[in-house]
Amino acid sequence: MLTFPLFNAFGFKGSCHIHNFSPNNWEKVGANYSYVSILKSNNNLWILERYEEIKRKDSIQIKIDSDSNNNYQNGVSHSALKIAMLSKEKPKSSYDLFPTRIEKTTQWPEWRSTIGLSKNGISTYYQGEISPFPPHGNLLSIHPFIQSYPNKNYFIFVNFEKSPVPRSSKLKIISSLTKKTIYDCQVYNNCCNVVDLNLLAIKQKDLPMFCCQTMTGIPFGLTSSNNCGQLSFEHTHPPGSIILGANRFKFQKRLKNKWLTL
Fold first, then answer.
1. Beta-bridge mates of residue 77
2. In the predicted model, is pLDDT for residue 248 greater than 50?
3. Which end of the chain has less neighbouring CB within 10 Å, N or C?
4. CA nearest neighbour of 129 among 13, 9, 18, 8
5. What is the dihedral of CA 129, 17, 151, 73, to 10 degrees?
6. Which residues contact 14 (CB under 8 A, 6 or more apart)?
């Protein structure tokens, strides 16, 4: 199965362009995927919302038209995550666990889609995919994307797990200067969790650390100009990715142990 996230965020509407052709032309594997399905977690099940067939070498755009599942409170938004699944088999109406049957695909680069957010006719995109995260994971995100006033800044935390059973964890924003907690809030699995950074007094030279001890996911920075005429949408990488010439996994473990225990 090939899986891609769909989500709205703070009035920004989500979309996903899925391409039914191989991302390279040297690995000899099939590209005859014929179904695009949209699933969401509900009542301890993954529920099929809709599906349609897609021909080989075709592309399809999927949009989220409604934000009815959005829950906003104290500067944090939680909206249900939807998963677009490209597969050879016709989908079932529901699943106890998200289907993750391994199929042979191209590997370099990974099979990705074009995922974006739009508002007032302006759009921003990144190339990506998503796979289920382990329920015992954690998150440390070094977030350098905050831009100065009058730009508006948001931190987006997207979690996707095999299990549809809802659970929550605590996300902490810690000052790298004082090592004190600036803000904390609840985040939820199989959701797009958005923190409105405009409500927080984060100093311009203070690099915030986003920490979550019992949940992991994809961390994004979303910035819009005051009139939404310009948008910036970037995801951060694990801390170990900034290390060269050393064991990045040992470094990342030490770094996480330092910040996740504060």
1. 72, 194
2. yes
3. C
4. 18
5. -70
6. 6, 7, 8, 63, 64, 115, 116, 117
